[in-house]
Structure formats: C-alpha cells, structure tokens
Amino acid sequence: MGILDNRVAIITGAGGGLGAAHARVLASEGCAVIVNDINEEAAQKVVDEITAAGGKAAANNSDITNYEDSGRAVKQAIDTFGSLDIVLNNAGINRDRMFASMTEAEWDAIMAVHLKGHFCITSNAVHYWRDQSKAGEKVEARIINTTSGAGLQGSIGQSNYAAAKAGICALTLNQAAELGRYGITANAIAPAARTGMTMSVDAMAQRMAKPEDGSFDYWAPENVSSLLAWLGSTEASHVTGRVFEAEGGKISIADGWRSTEGVDKGDHWAPAEVGEAMKQLLEKEVSAQKVYGT
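Above: the chain's sequence. Below: its structure in token form.
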C-alpha cells in the first residue's frame, strides 16, 4: 500500500534526471504514471524500470509546448488508466547567456518550454477536472509545478531562465486562487539535486557527486521526489498556493513578496521629496537574498 494508490499522474520531462526519479518514486507509492518526454526511447526506458518493479506506467512523447499535442497526454492517461489526478510539470531546458549577449531565440526557447510548457498540459487537465466537478463528482486533483532558486532570487547568466521560473511561481499562486473551487490544488517546488544539468558543470559535479561510503546521498533527486509524492496525495488537500524548496533532507517554504509598512505622506510627493522617502524605506528594508553568482 502506498500514499498514491489508485491515483494517476502525468510527469513531464520524465525521461531522465529529476523527472525520472519523480516517476519512479510516485510509481513506488502506487501511482500509475504517464512518463512524458520528447525523447520516446528515454521515456520507455523509465517505463520499463517501473513495470519491472511491479508498477504501472506508460510512455508519452507529446510536445509540451504544443497545446493540442499536450492534450494527447491527458487523453492517454484517461484512456490507459481510467482517470487523471496529478500533473507534475518538470520538463525544462537551459539556454544560459549573459543578458547583454542573449538572443531572441534563446529567450523564446526558455519561455516556450518552461512557461508555455507549464500551461499546455495543465490547461487540458483542468478542463477535464472542471467538467468532473460540474458533473457533481468529487475531485482531488493536484498541479505540481517546478520553479527554481533562480526564479526566487535571480541567477547571473540566466535572465531568461530566472524570468520563466519566477513566472511559474506567479502562475502557481493564480492557479491555487482560481481552481480550488473545483477541488484542484496548485503548488510549486524549487529543487536542488543531482541532474544532467547540474552535473554538466565541473564544480557542481564534484560537489554533488554520490558518496562512495554509502552515507546519506544528499543530492539524490529522490530526496525531492518524496515531497512531490506527498503533495500529489489526498492527504495534501489542505496545502495549496505554496512554493517549496527541497534539498537533501530539508524541506522549506519560500516566503514570497510582501508589502512593507511603507512611507505615506498623505499627499502628493514632489520628485525632489522622494529621496527622503527612499532613505526611510531603505533604512527599514529587510534585504532580499542575493542573486546567485553575485
């Protein structure tokens, strides 16, 4: 028995890295999984691993940046496993470049895979869940989005990626506020783990290497997957509109933007007066975390 028995999930970008770990962990908890990846061979390999371990899974190669094709993944989940309960948006790419050198194509590619990719499958799934709710069925649906520390505080050389990941945070808050009436929760996760992306950087590869002595594998992607499995369960119906960070054995909530007390003149500020107001504001300011790379 697992906490996801009789539930069905789509996991995007699940042919490797974090997505594959999420698929294996959710399947081990009883979830039937649609393993989505544009690389069909990679997706099938993960499916074979899950089924060999006694789990339920099927491969899907829908293009998450294409709305109609994304709908095919939703249809496959329903046709193959009888329903859909969880959309876990994990797929992502990098096109790192300093802002002054970034091309339009590098910007657009990131926005397509991350922001539009988070929209397409989820929108198709939400239509399915809303119809169920309007028909009087009980819905226990979960949207789980993937952001990043770059989206929470910025990252030098990743303005496109940081902007997209910050957009995912805002999207998550809106989804939670709008979709709760249909029995849908929405949360996001900023993971820190060993993946193909992190291991491609020499310094990070050395720091995140798997320990050879059998001790706790701090950077194992499965450490992140456990939180997502719980968020996908019926136990998590009261948790929505949150952005979590997961790293090693640590789980935390990322505290979002908050309005401060401010300085209120009660009248129009002349431009020359704003400097004094700014001085007061900055003296009371609680500084944000530093941008990665600064």
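The first strand starts at residue 8 and ends at 11.
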